[in-house]
């Protein structure tokens, strides 16, 4: 049976002297960062959706005025159109603050942890899991893309 701690390739191999707990911690940190990447995508979706809704309000105001509902048109125009989503902020400001603050710091800490503890190597935990879970020698279970090419 292949070595359980051996990786699929040199780029993802465990550097000499790194223990299981460190590999697992780096794997968890990487997974947490991946979750933050997903959250960032949702934040950008909210940014685009709210921006689109705000632009739609122009049509709402026009239609209300055409239908003779000036009072309601005024309320939409003055209370919703161009309104901040958070005190003093439109969504572009929210995503900028997120990117420059929390997101940038999270990426920096994860990168520093990999560099200091694993020589900058990524996904060691996952590479070792792949090695354990794949069926060695069968098509579709190659360690690397190159291993599957004739």
Question: Would you mind describing this structure in some detail?
Answer:
- The chain is an all-alpha fold and 150 residues long.
- It has one domain (10-136).
- 64% of the residues lie in helices and 0% in strands.
- It has helices at 20-66, 70-80, 91-118, 124-133.
- Helix 1 runs antiparallel to helix 2 (70-80) and helix 1 (20-66) runs antiparallel to helix 3.
- It is elongated, with a radius of gyration of 25 Å.
- 9% of the residues are buried.
List the helices and strands and how they pair.
Elements: H1 20-66, H2 70-80, H3 91-118, H4 124-133
Short description, anyone?
The chain has 4 helices and no strands. It has 150 residues and is mostly helical.
Count the DSSP helices: 4
Mean pLDDT, to the nearest integer, reads: 93
Poorly predicted runs:
none
Gap from first CA to last CA: 24 Å
Spatial shape = elongated
Number of strands: 0
Helix percentage: 55-70%
User: How many independent structural domains?
Assistant: 1
